[in-house]
Automatic annotation (TrEMBL):
It holds the Pfam family Glyco_hydro_3. This is beta-glucosidase. It comes from Rhodothermus marinus (strain ATCC 43812 / DSM 4252 / R-10) (Rhodothermus obamensis). One of its GO terms (molecular function) is beta-glucosidase activity. Residues 705-774 form the Fibronectin type III-like domain. Residues 1-18 form the signal peptide.
Length: 792
């Protein structure tokens, strides 16, 4: 292929002999030709500059008002720079951020020798992490929708907001498989199942990049898959701790979503993970990044480091002695660019000059980095944005409506003894109690949206003129410098507050909560119903990155005195709806049987209050489903539904069954599975099976059911899980309505990595399992008559 590119470049050179415009600026030429032309014009210093990034070092190029000031920039900045991180973080408006990126692009274009534009990065896990951007439900809540089409729409709107600011790449989505709920980043994942994570991950990539790439057109950005790989089940639940998986388990569980997003959604960037796998840190894992990702899967995009991940080969993993050696290890693994600031890769020029690194290795990385800039259209036309449009696009009414829709679909009804939906006409006084009742928690990697609605505000708005809605904090979980006795939803929750607070988490002393509990109990006694909002916050579940900034937990019980609060309120005898807001599964075993209803929300984004109020009052029929198992006890961990059959025994002091299983969720109506059949029910190993489910809404309300299809291999050459999710569909039915739901299973649904570490389908009998969650299933037998080899 490289010879073909050279040939095309020679033809162009002959045809354009008399022209002055270089080939790399000609938009009619193939990207590969333009890249080779530009690369051939670059000095070694200019090449390495493309492998560097700036974040904290942005301070070198801004004035006291954080405006770009090239007169302050170091001399080397005239070489250009590959990437700049988080351009929005200095500014309070989208317009200011757009002006900042425009100023830098204009100067780079006019004052560097080759005019190579800059790629700007932002975080966009569930919305742009910046002021004025729309904040959607956290990733694990988006997974709870079991609606990839909705997720694609959400990330499409995120991309539109991001690109309007002059930003071209986001460090999202997270496609780690989350199997360790003590881990503070579990909320960033799409859950415990590789198939569900892959479906949501592909939807996110399509939303961000568009369906046809390259090019990455207007209104779209480059997606970055995080974090490759094994990050989601760290030892002891400690962030960035080692993982110990065999190659088969790694490929089938933790690499699977990455492969799907690369091969089918064509993700253009991947981020390496902090952790090590079997002793090899991911930033130095040439087998995983070079041989598997690039070699086996054909990935042509950019591999970025996680923040400071390359220097951590020295400081955390102790596999490199100095920055020079760390840079060599990462480059050998084909990590293309160092984030967020230049450290190890700043040594590359000197190392090439000394013969320690071949310049060809730098060329390969820069070739990929330039390709991304051409793919996103930075060289074609003016690389600037309309600053006024950035303000109009961010947090539009359309975005706000979509955030509400996503929040509605994410809410999971876990228990209902008939208490819900509440009847507004039969209520005089509603008590809204709890640490999360009067504030909006957004979760990790959140921005500062223009609008937020707390549960207290949502219920007051919904019940205005019908019932009195009163508030008590109940308990406080953690202390920081901004907490007050009054709810402050405009602050955007504790994540926004903690930016100005200490890294250290300070739990509120129990004695300080006694009066709050007494106040809450007094309010409850005079009320018709209590909406009790509990959970965690963005300080008790967050990314742990240093001894002074922790985020993982030993316990999964509700932090602080929340259980004490719940039990005290329950003792009044007033009906209680438990609403859970937070970033991880919580062990609520002692509370489940005592409350009348449980509504699980995770973090629901800026429209939290409206969505919860609609569900509680029956304006919306909840249909979210758990993307992760909720255990009865921490001693059950790891607790995921697709375990191996040898994990079959209970404990001497309790059951091994979860409190709520994967895929579980209730509705205000009821659904009946009238029949399940396979067409055909006997097929060759490379064949396709259609699962046909006749579903009926047998209740009196319209609602959604999530039809889930699992597969079990009865006998196999390698031990297989007891069941694996292989298909699902969220279906809407009116009262009494019937519908035949069809889900197709191809050979990949029955394949696994066999004895020779190739994906094979073995002849034999399988069970196809269909139902509304991972435990209540109808089994239909399928015979596969011959094997099939799908290769690596």
């Amino acid at each position: 292929m490289r010879l073909g590119i050279v040939f095309l470049l020679l033809l162009w050179s002959c045809a354009a002999w008399a022209q002055e415009r270089p080939a790399y600026l000609d938009p009619t030429l193939p990207i590969e030709v333009r890249v080779e032309d530009l690369l051939g014009r670059m000095t070694l210093e200019e090449k390495v500059a493309q492998m560097l990034s700036m974040r904290q070092t942005k301070r070198l190029i801004v004035d006291e008002q954080n405006r770009f000031d090239p007169s302050r920039a170091p001399e080397w900045f005239k070489l250009g720079i590959g990437r700049i991180e988080r351009p929005s973080e200095y500014f309070q408006t989208a317009r200011e951020a757009a002006a900042f990126t425009n100023a830098i692009q204009r100067w780079v274009r006019e004052n560097t020798r080759l005019g190579i534009p800059v790629i700007f990065h932002e975080e966009a896990l569930h919305g742009l992490r910046a002021a004025e951007a729309t904040s959607y439900p956290q990733a694990i809540a988006l997974a709870s929708t079991w609606n990839p089409a909705l997720v694609e729409r959400v990330y499409g709107r995120i991309a539109r907001e991001v690109r309007a600011r002059g930003v071209h790449q986001v460090l999202a989505p997270v496609v780690d498989v989350g199997r360790e709920p003590r881990w503070g980043r579990i909320e960033e994942t799409f859950g415990e199942d590789p198939y569900l994570v892959a479906e949501m991950g592909k939807a996110a990539v399509w939303g961000l990049q568009g369906r046809r790439v390259p090019p990455v057109g207007p209104g779209h950005v480059i997606a970055t898959l995080k974090h490759m790989a094994g990050h989601g089940q760290p030892e002891s639940g400690i962030n960035v701790a080692p993982v110990f998986f065999g190659e088969r388990h790694l490929r089938e569980v933790f690499l699977y979503p990455f492969r799907e997003a690369v091969e089918k959604a064509h993700a253009l960037s991947v981020m390496a993970s902090y952790n090590e796998i079997d002793g090899i840190p991911s930033h130095a894992n040439a087998w995983m990044l070079r041989d598997v990702l690039r070699g086996e899967w054909g990935f042509r995009g950019v591999i970025v480091s996680d923040w400071h991940g390359i220097p951590q080969l020295i400081t955390r993993h102790h596999v490199a002695e100095n920055l020079e050696e760390a840079a060599r290890l990462a480059l050998q693994a084909t990590v293309d660019v160092e984030l967020p600031d230049y450290e190890a890769y700043a040594t590359l020029v000197d190392q090439v000059r000394r013969g320690l690194i071949p310049e060809l290795a730098v060329d390969e990385a820069v070739r990929r980095l330039l390709w991304a800039k051409f793919a996103v259209g930075l060289f074609d036309g003016e690389p600037y944005v309309d600053e006024a449009e950035a303000s109009r696009v961010n947090a539009s009414e359309e975005d706000r409506a979509l955030a509400l829709e996503a929040a509605r679909e994410a809410i999971i009804l876990l228990k209902n003894d008939g208490l819900l939906p509440l009847e507004a006409g039969r209520l005089d006084r509603v008590a809204v109690i709890g640490p999360h009742a009067g504030e909006v928690l957004l979760g990790g990697y959140s921005g500062r949206p223009r609008y937020t609605v707390s549960i207290l505000e949502g219920l007051r708005e919904r019940l205005r003129g019908e019932a009195e809605v009163l508030y008590a904090e109940g308990v406080r979980i953690t202390e920081d410098s901004v907490f007050t006795d009054e709810p402050q939803p405009h602050l955007g929750g504790t994540w926004a507050r903690q930016r100005n607070a200490a890294h250290r988490v300070v739990f509120t002393p129990p004695e300080a909560n006694r009066s709050r509990i007494e106040e809450a109990v007094a309010l409850a006694r005079t009320s018709d119903v209590v909406v009790l909002v509990v959970g965690g916050n963005e300080q008790t579940a967050r990314e742990a990155y240093a001894p002074y900034h922790l985020g993982d937990r030993l316990s999964l019980r509700l932090p602080g005195q929340q259980e004490e609060l719940v039990k005290a309120v329950l003792a009044t005898g007033v009906p209680v709806v438990l609403v859970v807001i937070g970033g991880r599964p919580y062990v609520i075993t002692e509370l489940v049987d005592r409350v009348g209803a449980i509504v699980w929300g995770w973090y629901l984004g800026q429209e939290t209050g409206r969505a919860v109020a609609e569900v509680l009052l029956g304006d919306y029929n909840p249909a979210g489903r758990l993307p992760i198992t909720i255990p009865r006890h921490e001693g059950q961990l790891p607790a995921y539904y697709s375990h191996k059959p040898s994990k079959e025994l209970d404990y001497v002091d309790g059951t091994s069954r979860p409190l709520f299983p994967f895929g579980y969720g209730l509705s205000y109506t009821r659904f009946a599975y009238r029949s399940v059949r396979l067409e055909p029910d006997r097929v060759g190993g490379c064949g396709v099976v259609r699962v046909l489910v006749e579903l009926e809404n047998v209740g009196d309300r319209a609602g959604d059911e999530v039809v889930q299809v699992y597969v079990r291999d009865r006998v196999s050459s390698v031990a297989r899980p007891v069941k694996e999710l292989k298909g699902f569909r969220r279906v809407h039915l009116g009262p009494g309505e019937r519908k035949v739901v069809e889900i197709e299973l191809g050979p990949e649904a029955f394949a696994f990595y066999g004895l020779e570490m190739e994906r094979v389908v073995e002849a034999g009998w399988f069970d196809v399992l269909v139902g509304g969650n991972s435990e209540e299933l109808i089994s239909v037998p399928l015979e596969i008559t011959e094997g099939c080899n799908l290769g690596r």
